[in-house]
Design a protein that fits this description.
Length: about 900
C-alpha cells in the first residue's frame, strides 16, 4: 500500500457522513428564540458502502456530474476496502479521491445574499437559512488593489465596531510589524486594503457598490502567536457598518471529548496549488474567488506549525476550504457563534482554525472591544486561573523604531510611529523580500541596504538594482517619466492598460519548493536546508512520481528563485507591465504544471475578463505553456502572445546526464549538502517525471530512440516505462502545440552543448559537449519547430532571463512586435558542426566548503546560486565510482 492510499484510507475512515435530513423550522428573524426553536443538532454517522452508492446514484457527485454504473461499483468496492484498511487498486484509489471524497463536503454558492439549495444529505442546512443569511453581510474579501499577482489577500469578518478579524498571514501582505497599536504596526508603503462583502457567484469581476466597500485605515493588532490580525475599517461612502459576528467565549460543551460540531465556513475559496487540482475543479465547479458557504464538522484539535515557528494547538474541521479561505469565519450552526478563525489546512488531514475562546483569554485582544459572547446558559469566570503559556509571546515583540534623519514614507494611520525596515540578515534574505520592501528599506537606511545588496548580488546586477531603487525614491516630475517612479512594482499609476499582462514561468529547478506542517520551510533552493542536510532525500518522489517519498511531507511551489528571476520581472513592471510570476512543482509531470497553469489563468480571467495575457517561459516553463495550450482550447481567448527563452521543445540531454551523475548541478549540490552524497542526488533525479518528460526527441536526435525502452538503461538507473512512454508523447505535444503559432523563441546557438547519447562498451555514457546550443538545450531542440519568429541570443541557458538584451527583447516584442535581437536563420538552426569544447575547471571541494560555511553563517549570494544552478559546464573527472559508493 503506497503512502497516498494510506492517507486516503485514514482520512476517509474518520470522515463523518452528512447528518440525516431534518424537518424544516420556520423563523421570521434571528432573535434568541430562534435558537430555542431548533431541534437538537443532527448527529453524523460513519461512512458506508450503501451511503456512497446512494450519494452517487442520486446525482450528488461534485458538480452534479453523472457517474457510470462502473464508477458506482468501483466506489462501493473502494469504500469497503477503505473501512477495512485494505489496499486498493489504482482505479479504486482514483474513484475514492475524485468522486467520493468531494461529494462528502459540498460547496454552496452565495447569490443575492443567500445560499443555493443544499444537496442530498445536507437538506437540514435549510433550517439555518435565516442564521446564515444574517451572517453573510459581515463576511467579505480583503482586496489589495496594488497586489497585481493575486486578485485578493484573503477573507475577513466583522467582530466589533468597525473591527475586522483576519489572519496574520493575510494582514502581513500590507501591514508591517507584530504587536498591538501604532508603536508596533504600520502599513507597507504604496499598499492599501479594502473589505468588500460582495463578489458573490455570478457577480461582475469588479468590486461591489461603494456602500458595500470599507477601507482598512488602521492595523490594531497582529498577534505574535496566533494566526490572527485585527483591522480597523471605515465605509467608503459613510454608510452603516454591518453587525459584528459573535465570538464564542468558551469551548462548545462536549467539544474536545469526541463531540463534533455542525459548522459552516463562509469565505472566498481560491485555487490552491498544494492540493489535488482536478478535485478542486470538481468540488468548486471551476469557480474561484467568489463567496461560498462550505458546511462540515469541527472535529477536534490538532497541532500545526506556522511560518513564524509557532506551534498552534488549533481546532480542526473538515469543510472543503482552499487558499482564499484564509480568514474565514467557522460558525456554529446551533448557536450562531464564531468558533474559530480558519487559517489553513493539510490535504487529506485536516483544516485548522484559531479557537476564539483562546483569544478571549488575551487582554490585548479583549481590550479592543471584540464581540465575545457566552454560550447559552454558560458564564465564564473572570480574574482566576493562570494565563496560557502562549501569552508570553507578547514579551518578545519589539516596536518599530525609525532611525534618526532617515526619510520615511507617509503613514496612513494617524499618530503611527515611523517604522524601520530592518532587512533580515539571514542567508537567504534576498529570496524572502519583495522589491517593494527593498524600496522601503532604501527609504529608511540607504547605506546599509546598498551594502547588503552589493554583498549579495554580482556587481553588475547590484548596480542595476540599486539604480532602479534610487530612481524609485525620486519625486515624480512628469507624468511621462519612463522609469522615474517605482510604483510599477506594485501596479500603480504607471501601469499601461494597453499592454498584455505577463505570466512569467521559471525553468526546471528554478522555483522554490517548501513544506508545510511539522516539516515546514523551504527545501529548494534554501541555504538553511543545505546546512541542515538531506535535501536530495526530501526532494525525492515516490514510485508514483507524484507523492513525496518523505513520510508526512508534502512540498508545494513557493515562488521563483529571485536571484535568477527578480531582475526581468522588475524591469518589465517598470516598463508598465503587470507581471504574474507563476510557480510550479518542476519535479512532477509537465501535464500537472500545465493544469495548474490553466486554473491560474482561469482565475485571472475571472477577475479580468477583458484582459489579454502573454506567456513568457524560460526553459521548462515554455514546455508547460505548450502543454497548457494543447490541452485547453480556450487558451486562444486568453493568451495573445507567447515568448519562450531556451525552451527544450524537442528535449534535452540533461536528464541523461543527471541519471548518470554528470549533470553538474547534482555533484555541486552534493558537495554542500551535510548529509546526502552524489548517489542520493542521482536517486532523486531518477524519481522525477518532470525531468524524464524532457528527454531528447528521437525524431530529431535518432541516437536517443533507445532511451524510450527501459531495457536500454542500466538497471539501477532505469526510469519507469510509464514515464518513458509519457515522455515520448510529450515531444509530440511540445512541437505541435497551437501556441507556437503566436510564439517567439529566443535561442542561443553558440555555447557547447551535449547533443547526442554516448555509448561505451554497450552502456550509456555522458555525451560530448560540443554541439551548438545554450549549454543545456541544443539549438535544434529550442528552435526546431514552426514558430512565429525565432531570435538569436548569446547568453547561456541559466542566465538567459536576466540578460539585458533578452529582457529588452521581451519588452519590445510584447509592445511593438519587433526587437533588436537578430533572427536565427535555418542554416544556424540545422547546423550540427561541432564546437570546440571549452576548458572547464574542476569543482574544487574548497569552493564548496566555503559555500557550505556561508550557508550556515553568511549570505547566500548570486554567485552561489549560479554555482549550484548553472549546468553549462561539463563535470570533469570520473563520477561513476562516486555513484557506486553512494548507492
Amino acid at each position: 500500500m503506497n503512502d497516498k492510499q494510506r492517507r486516503l484510507i485514514d482520512y476517509f475512515s474518520k470522515l463523518p457522513e452528512p447528518a440525516p435530513p431534518r424537518s424544516a423550522v420556520s423563523s421570521e428573524g434571528i432573535e434568541e428564540s430562534f435558537f430555542e426553536s431548533l431541534p437538537p443538532p443532527p448527529t453524523p454517522s460513519t461512512p458506508s458502502a450503501e451511503s456512497v452508492k446512494t450519494m452517487l446514484e442520486t446525482g450528488t457527485a461534485p458538480g452534479d456530474q453523472p457517474v457510470t454504473e462502473r464508477e458506482v461499483e468501483v466506489a462501493v468496492s473502494a469504500t469497503e476496502k477503505a473501512l477495512k484498511d485494505e489496499e486498493m487498486s489504482f482505479e479504486e484509489q482514483d474513484i475514492l479521491e475524485a468522486l467520493v471524497l468531494p461529494g462528502k463536503r459540498p460547496v454552496l454558492d452565495i447569490v443575492d445574499g443567500d445560499f443555493s439549495t443544499p444537496p442530498a444529505g445536507w437538506e437540514w442546512l435549510a433550517d439555518y437559512r435565516q442564521l446564515i443569511r444574517a451572517a453573510l453581510p459581515s463576511v467579505g474579501r480583503i482586496d489589495i488593489p496594488e497586489l497585481q499577482t493575486a486578485p485578493y489577500g484573503g477573507t475577513g469578518f466583522f467582530v466589533g465596531d468597525g473591527l475586522l478579524m483576519t489572519n496574520r498571514h493575510v494582514a502581513r501582505i500590507f501591514v508591517q510589524g507584530v504587536g498591538a497599536g501604532p508603536k508596533y504596526l504600520t502599513f507597507l508603503a504604496d499598499r492599501t486594503a479594502f473589505f468588500d462583502s460582495q463578489y458573490e457567484v455570478g457577480d461582475d469581476p469588479g468590486p461591489g457598490a461603494p456602500s458595500e466597500r470599507f477601507e482598512v485605515i488602521e492595523a490594531k493588532l497582529v498577534h505574535p502567536h496566533w494566526d490572527t490580525a485585527i483591522l480597523k475599517v471605515k465605509p467608503v461612502d459613510g454608510t452603516q457598518l454591518p453587525q459584528p459576528l459573535k465570538l464564542a467565549r468558551q469551548m462548545p460543551p462536549g467539544f474536545g471529548s469526541g463531540a463534533m460540531i455542525n459548522v459552516a465556513v463562509i469565505g472566498y475559496p481560491m485555487l490552491d496549488s498544494r492540493n489535488n487540482i482536478p478535485e478542486q475543479m470538481n468540488i468548486f465547479r471551476s469557480i474561484f474567488g467568489r463567496k461560498r458557504m462550505m458546511p462540515g464538522y469541527m472535529t477536534g484539535f490538532g497541532d500545526v506549525k506556522t511560518k513564524w515557528d509557532a506551534m498552534l494547538h488549533a481546532t480542526t474541521h473538515d469543510a472543503s476550504t482552499l487558499g482564499g479561505n484564509s480568514g474565514s469565519a467557522v460558525i456554529d450552526l446551533t448557536t450562531g457563534l464564531v468558533l474559530s478563525l480558519h487559517f489553513g489546512g493539510v490535504y487529506l488531514k485536516a483544516n485548522y482554525g484559531v479557537p476564539t475562546w483562546e483569544l478571549a483569554l488575551d487582554s490585548k485582544v479583549t481590550d479592543l472591544g471584540l464581540n465575545f459572547t457566552d454560550f447559552p446558559g454558560v458564564t465564564v469566570a473572570t480574574g482566576s486561573g493562570t494565563p496560557p503559556v502562549w501569552t508570553r509571546t507578547w514579551d518578545t515583540v519589539t516596536p518599530l523604531v525609525g532611525e534618526e534623519n532617515i526619510p520615511v514614507a507617509p503613514a496612513r494611520v494617524s499618530g503611527a510611529a515611523p517604522a524601520a525596515t530592518l532587512l533580515p540578515v539571514a542567508p537567504d534574505w534576498f529570496e524572502r523580500i519583495s522589491d517593494v520592501e527593498l524600496l522601503e528599506a532604501m527609504r529608511r537606511d540607504r547605506v546599509q541596504t546598498e551594502r547588503l545588496i552589493r554583498e549579495t548580488l554580482l556587481p553588475k546586477e547590484a548596480d542595476d538594482l540599486i539604480g532602479d531603487l534610487q530612481r524609485g525614491l525620486q519625486p515624480v516630475t512628469s507624468t511621462t517619466t519612463e522609469e522615474g517612479i517605482f510604483d510599477f512594482l506594485v501596479g500603480g499609476d504607471k501601469v499601461d492598460p494597453s499592454l498584455p499582462e505577463i505570466i512569467f514561468l521559471h525553468g526546471i529547478m528554478g522555483g522554490h519548493l517548501a513544506a508545510y506542517g511539522g516539516l515546514g520551510g523551504r527545501i529548494w533552493l534554501s541555504p538553511l536546508a543545505f546546512a541542515a542536510g538531506g535535501v536530495a532525500s526530501r526532494l525525492t518522489l515516490g514510485s508514483d512520481g507524484l507523492q513525496d517519498l518523505t513520510p508526512d511531507q508534502i512540498l508545494y511551489p513557493d515562488g521563483p528563485i529571485r536571484l535568477v528571476y527578480e531582475k526581468p520581472a522588475r524591469k518589465w513592471r517598470m516598463q508598465g507591465f503587470i507581471v504574474h510570476e507563476f510557480s510550479f512543482d518542476w519535479r512532477k509531470p509537465v501535464t500537472n504544471a500545465a493544469e495548474r497553469l490553466h486554473l491560474f489563468i482561469e482565475s485571472l480571467h475571472l477577475e479580468r475578463p477583458a484582459k489579454k495575457f502573454a506567456l513568457v517561459g524560460h526553459s521548462m516553463g515554455g514546455c508547460v505553456s505548450a502543454v497548457y495550450a494543447a490541452s485547453h482550447p480556450e487558451w486562444s481567448s486568453r493568451i495573445s502572445q507567447a515568448i519562450f527563452m531556451g525552451a527544450p521543445l524537442r528535449g534535452s540531454f540533461a536528464p541523461i546526464e543527471a541519471f548518470l551523475g554528470t549533470y553538474s548541478i547534482l555533484p555541486r549540490a552534493a558537495l554542500v549538502d551535510f548529509k546526502n552524497n552524489l548517489g542520493q542526488y542521482v536517486a532523486f533525479a531518477r524519481s522525477l517525471p518532470g525531468l524524464i518528460d524532457l528527454l531528447p526527441d528521437p525524431e530529431t536526435f535518432p541516437s536517443a530512440a533507445p532511451l524510450y525502452e527501459r531495457a536500454t538503461w542500466p538497471k539501477e538507473s532505469a526510469p519507469a516505462q510509464v514515464w518513458l512512454d509519457q515522455s515520448r508523447q510529450m515531444k509530440r505535444v511540445f512541437t505541435t502545440s497551437p501556441i507556437l503559432e503566436t510564439a517567439r523563441l529566443i535561442v542561443t546557438p553558440n555555447v557547447p552543448t551535449v547533443g547526442e547519447v554516448g555509448v561505451v562498451n554497450g552502456k550509456l555514457a555522458p555525451g560530448r559537449r560540443n554541439l551548438p546550443g545554450d549549454g543545456t538545450v541544443p539549438t535544434r531542440s529550442a528552435a526546431g519547430v514552426q514558430a512565429r519568429a525565432i531570435y538569436r541570443s548569446t547568453s547561456e541557458h541559466g542566465t538567459l532571463p536576466r540578460e539585458d538584451t533578452v529582457i529588452k527583447a521581451v519588452r519590445d516584442l510584447l509592445k511593438d512586435g519587433t526587437c533588436d535581437l537578430p533572427p536565427l536563420t535555418d542554416a544556424v538552426i540545422n547546423n550540427v558542426t561541432p564546437i570546440e569544447e571549452s576548458i572547464t575547471e574542476a569543482i574544487e571541494e574548497a569552493t564548496a566548503a566555503d559555500l557550505s560555511l556561508r550557508m550556515r553563517t553568511g549570505i547566500f549570494t548570486q554567485r552561489d546560486a549560479d554555482f549550484l544552478l548553472r549546468a553549462d559546464d561539463a563535470l570533469p573527472g570520473p563520477v561513476g565510482t562516486l555513484i557506486s559508493d553512494g548507492m
